[in-house]
């Protein structure tokens, strides 16, 4: 009996975690004390801890008898409001009586699209189902919650797990799933008995248990429950809804259906189970990464492996077998192929034209190309399927119900769906979800979700581009709207406690015409000591959006307001964006002010920040402000203030440029919209006025001052914006282009670049400088938000500022709200909260903001492109002058300054024999027959809309001058039509 | 240790009574006081038992955790003991007052229970040399009214009987990496064989005789006591003398014999009671700490 050495005094292990279940519904309300019988149970389960230990977790679980059934027909339950209607009629050939539906977990998980349909009402969602759904799929859970919140849907959540009569304990030998199925059956039984006993006129109201599991149905039958309630397979039920046959299309395919569709031929290797994948990743034989399908070649993709920090590596995947059913954005496990099987990415554009070319891509001549790391997908770690927008390719066979769907995004494979409304859906933009991709099917199987409208229609296309760019654009939910201030809103004395009263100042705002979300206003006045006081007043959005509430979370998720042509998708509800936060004239508004004392040389003598109340005296447009400044007869306070600002702004701008800030150029287009149809009737590039740059200067100054302040105060968690210097190789194209015109450009520093751009001029070519600046813009990196504690390079290259942030547009950018909160804490005007000081949380937020900004930009560009197409559709063929911006292997890219439009002129096409083309990379020049194209060459082109592919309409350009036989086209004599043809809407 | 003040006259009274096999509370010399056992009293342990013996109350909780086997015995699990003498039991334990007793008690418990003859330590092995179950036995003294050893040992045996260790599987991937997998069924668990788990019988030498289950008063009259751990077959697995006085070899022999007898008689009804309670299953009325 050897004693095992010294006895340590071990800590007591008696106490383990006890977590109180918070799911208990609130006790009955309403004055009188209700006697509630509460019973305590406990739920026990064991869990593996991260360190490899085993923990037993016990949760207290309270049962009660005051959970009501939610039915209007019930007289027994003492509920105050009911959700489920008495006349719950649905025209089903299987259930002729009024009934409530109880879906089981799998029905909710797989058929959420059906449940979302307006036809499906009066549904009881059991807590068991809700919890399981939450555990299994967060997106479905969110959608389910949204349905439950919708009043017209009459979805009722029954907390059966806490109801004394419907709670069941897991029995020995019962799996968790079986237990949950039993709980659902018990709850269904309770409901049917409950509805029967309530003596009111229930009209034979019954409950129908929806399942897609034969076994569950069988068990319900076996236990003799069927005399109480009906249990129907969900497919059968939906098919029985005689009044709404279109719902059948929205049914997701279950496993049985998949087999019948496909042939017996196994096309793909089996995916490995998750446990094998994890083991493989651990041992290094597999790598995990994000699958990125190629836009141009459906047989090729790359897998992006996240490395340390920002950088990552890419692995090439080639061939249908190796792609192995991975879909764009999936997280996959990849096995590297042996080195001798490595290939080079092909430069051929391959679009999936159907089943004809099933096999691997033909071997191309790859003498020069360098082989890179190549691998194959062995398993899927996480699918990232979302509903995809696209169009239906109606099957050739007339009676067929199976059709292929082509997504708008070329990186997504076609999806096979089953629908009986093919003829109606043809020509419409529709959304389709993927249900699965069996290994013997060439295409994934999916189901129809909803129709977005006719292809080519403005509303439909706008919806498509919002969906495809992942821009959250639904109306704000009630939960979010609940956090808005109650109207009528007025400034209270409490609001004034920490605010400075600046209502007496002559503040005015200058914005583009039609702007309703005014987030900045300015003032300038002379002080008694002769110095100038300049104030930038920014809407105090953080006063209205408090951290952590639903409104704040929604805004953080949206990240930015998205401006499309003729439409704005707000980041915050309209009440805030266009009213309470908008610094409109002649109303009192809360502001966050940054006030400088400057001398007349625009040197800052003092800076201070304060929360304030202002009363803007005028909301001007850039043009109005410019007119006031220029009009020597005007001498009112506003005009004087504007002149002071303008004077200082010019000095500031000069100083900034001396420091090496870049003035780059990109053409922005502005559409003149028809006021009724909202169709573009004219298109012109935006003009910049002095006042534009006046406002900009002070915004930059405010941003820099705030950035410095919050960084001084919070070294670890200031939210800043940086713009990294581009790597030298980025400038290659700019240098080559400049060299072709014998102009020297220096790119060593921002200052050198700015200076050399300034002096770059070619005689008789006034547009040269602008073109050069457009090219320079393309060389730049993307500016990004970051958290100061996670990075040490703060420099803003474009602005030549050592530190920068965004402070001046909190109505339309979430980053500014965070900066406002930081600044408010720094000056003691507001309290802090934990997430604000957590650099990891903030870093995650920055990632989202950067993503949203990028997507917003893309969406914006797509919107402009679409409107340009609309414009040219109405104009027919145009003949315009343009400049060669880039020279490519087989094409030139032409910029039309008049429209700010860029287009590609191809010199090889499918049906024509390619003329002799010589491409010189060094120039770069492209010689076709006798003519050589260089960057900056002036050309003439015809512009027309190519609508041959309705999903991807594009602007087609064809060369008219210089005339090259066989390449250029004759000048169309049809000048812009006098009267535009009516657009078919 | 909790003591009571006993006057000379009282001492004589107790001594004389014991000499005539009649103790103050009416028991014979080899009789235990009234004993109550309840298992599964602490839901967040893997096994627990509460034992009251007279006014002595002991709570034992057992937590099973995965640990590394001791290098000398790679294919066995082991037990860890911790005795908490809370000031609840007696004010003397306040502060660090109970520490010494706690250490003494846990040292004895190691000797008695942590060996392969008492508990089937091999069944606690998950993967030789790498993973084994470690049973953390936490003893909480709720009230002291003498005879702590016996009460604790009975409570430990009951708690070990009650212990449900989640069943685990070792899965091996092709690279030879081992992963512990846990069953998701809370009813899927392993029980310990407690047949050979001994009970401690403390014999107190009072005058020329010895008594079992001495009260605090009797303890105050005794010079020394012998603790004997006995299995259900009557095998003595450990003896230890506690207390300041000395014992002659003859009385040690006598006491050992008595201990064996008493111990053997103790095991049968104990197992009986435990099995009965187990059969009640969910219908069991919980008494807990309010009973």
Provide a short characterization of the protein structure.
The complex is a heterodimer of chains A (985) and B (291). Chain A is α+β, with helices and mostly antiparallel strands.
Task: Compile the SSE list and pairings.
The complex is a heterodimer of chains A (985) and B (291).
Chain A lengths: L17 E3 L17 E11 L5 E11 L34 E5 L1 H6 L1 H4 L7 E4 H10 L1 H12 L5 E4 L17 H22 L8 E6 L2 H9 L7 E4 H7 L14 H7 L12 H10 L2 E8 L6 E7 L5 E7 L1 H4 L7 E6 L37 E9 L5 E6 L8 E6 L7 E4 L3 H4 L2 E9 L8 E10 L3 H11 L9 H4 L11 H4 L3 E2 L5 E5 L8 E7 L5 E8 L1 H4 L5 H9 L3 E3 L2 E3 L4 H7 L7 E11 L5 E18 H9 L6 H23 L9 E5 L6 E6 L4 H24 L5 E4 L9 H9 L9 H10 L8 H12 L4 E4 L26 H13 L12 H37 L2 E10 L3 E6 L4 E6 L10 E4 L4 E4 L2 E3 L4 E9 L7 E8 L24
Helix pairs in contact in A: 3-4, 12-25, 19-20, 20-24, 21-23
Chain B lengths: L7 H12 L15 E5 L7 E7 L2 E12 L10 E8 L13 H15 L11 E3 L3 E13 L4 H15 L1 E3 L1 E5 L5 E5 L6 E3 L7 E8 L2 E4 L3 H6 L2 E7 L5 E7 L6 H32 L11
Parallel strand pairs in B: 4-6
Antiparallel strand pairs in B: 1-2, 2-3, 3-6, 5-6, 7-10, 8-9, 11-12, 11-13, 13-14
Helix pairs in contact in B: 3-5
Describe this structure in words.
Chain B: Its main location: cytoplasm. Chain B: InterPro entries: ExoRNase_PH_dom1, ExoRNase_PH_dom2, ExoRNase_PH_dom2_sf, Exosome_comp_Rrp42_subfam, PNPase/RNase_PH_dom_sf, Ribosomal_Su5_D2-typ_SF. With 985 residues, chain A is an alpha+beta fold. Chain A folds into six domains: 60 residues, no CATH class; 171 residues, 3-Layer(aba) Sandwich (Rossmann fold); 109 residues, OB fold (Dihydrolipoamide Acetyltransferase, E2P) (Beta Barrel), CATH 2.40.50; 83 residues, Beta Barrel (OB fold (Dihydrolipoamide Acetyltransferase, E2P)), CATH 2.40.50; 278 residues, no CATH class; 88 residues, OB fold (Dihydrolipoamide Acetyltransferase, E2P) (Beta Barrel). Helices cover 28% and strands 25% of the residues of chain A. Chain A has 25 helices and 38 strands. In chain A, the strands form eleven sheets. In chain A, strands 19, 20, 21, 22, 25 and 26 form a six-stranded mixed beta sheet that branches. In chain A, strand 37 and strand 38 form a beta hairpin. In chain A, helix 12 packs antiparallel against helix 25, helix 19 crosses helix 20 and helix 20 packs across helix 24. Chain B is of the alpha+beta class and 291 residues long. Chain B has five helices and 14 strands. In chain B, helix 3 packs parallel to helix 5. Chain B is elongated and about 75 Å long. Classes of the chains: A alpha+beta (985), B alpha+beta (291).
